[in-house]
Amino acid sequence: MELETLTFKHVENLWDAAVADALDPVERLVYRSNLLGTDWRITNTGGGNTSSKLMETDPLTGEEVEVLWVKGSGGDLRTAKRANFASLYQDKLLALQDVYANFDERGPKTPAEDAMVAMYNHCTFNLNPRACSIDTPLHSFIPHKFVDHTHPTACIAIATAKDGKRLTQEIFGDEVIWTAWQRPGFELGLTLQQICRDNPQAKGVMLGGHGLINWADDDKECYLLSLALIDKAAEYLVQRDKGDETFGGAKYKSFDPGERADKLAVLLPWLRGQVSQEKRFIGTVETRDAIMQFVNSHDAQRLAELGTSCPDHFLRTKIKPLYVDWDPETRDLASLKSKLTDGLEQYRKDYAAYYENHKRPDSPAMRVSSPTVILIPGLGMIAWGKNKSESRVTAEFYNAAVEVMRGAESVSEYTAIAKREAFDIEYWLLEEAKLKRKPPEQELSRQIIAIIGAGSGIGQAVAERVIREGATVVALDLDQEAAEQTAKEVLDEIGMGIGVAGSGISGCGDIIGFGIDITDRESISAALQQVMLAYGGLDTVVVTAGLYVSPDATGHIDDWDWDRTFAVNVTGPYLVADEAARIWETQGLSGSMVITTSVNAAVAKKGSFAYDTSKAAANHLVRELAVTYAPLIRVNGVAPATVVEGSPMFPRARVMASLTKYDIPFDEDADTATLRQQLAQFYADRTLLKRPITPDDQAEAIYLLLGDRLGKTTGQILTVDGGLHEAFLR
Ligand SMILES: [Zn+2]
Question: Which residues pair with 373 in a beta bridge?
Answer without folding.
Answer: 383
